[in-house]
Write a structure and sequence with these properties.
The protein is mainly alpha-helical. The chain has one domain: MetI-like (MetI-like fold, Orthogonal Bundle), CATH 1.10.3720. The protein is 77% helix and 0% strand. It has 13 helices and no strands. Helix 6 crosses helix 8.
Amino acid sequence: MLAAIAARLVLAVPTLLLVTVVVFSLQLLLPGDPALALAGEERDPEAIAAIRAQYHLDRPIPVQYLIWLGGLLRGDLGTSLKTGLPVGELIASKLPVTIELALLAMAIALAIGIPAGVLAAVKKGGPLDAAANFVALAGISIPNFWLGIMLILLVSVHWGLLPASGYTSPFEDPLRNLQTMIMPAFVLGTGIAAVMMRHTRSAMLTVLRQDYVRTARAAGLPERRVIGRHALKNALLPVVTLGTLEFGTLLSGAVLTEQVFTIPGFGKLVVDAVFTRDYPVVQGVVLCAGLGFVLMSLLADILYVVLNPRLRT
């Protein structure tokens, strides 16, 4: 098991290096010149030249990449062109917010998607199966931003149960924090739950047709034990892949949802950075998102080994 994990870690190194190349290349695709934006309206030639020299914008692109990569190896993500703060500090201030939102959304998705998928597979062709498929189709079809706006109008404006927007740290007021995060987490979680329900149902239908499940039933085991201990454990393998990838997507920042609910996370940070042409912040956020996907892929490999004993050999 340790050898397999070590091999995955070795393969992650060139992947991360490729991610750095792609992330650095983003500045070539973004419109505008950061030096002109920082120079102000007067755009004095001497000021522009000084800005280019300060941020190495006057160097060839390969040299700029090597300078930036060297900073990454030292833990330096650069400095924000807009605020003058280190990018690492900006990311560190936004990352806990996005992680909290991702964890709450994934908890909601798991609590809804997996039980609904299991029930739909066990009761295939029945009313529960039809209801679960209808709800899953609705969850996949409804845009997150529309659902968020409708929840704000209904829950916040009409009923006055939860705040419409904003964020409060859990260290300041845990209850207020939960009140501000539950709606955006529900918006994100329902979409993932719909996809997870479909995958769980498909995997369970495949597993329930296997010989070992029929043998377990023929041996007189209770149906609950057959489903929970024998079928569900093997059906979770494709769900693990989906869950880790979706969690990586959540960590990269739910842009629309964070904008609707004014959540100061990764999504809002990268949108503001794009509009202000703050290239170091954009690069830092995207790089962290790529690192998150690599780590989630590694976690999926570890969970495969835990759930499937055959992979341990």
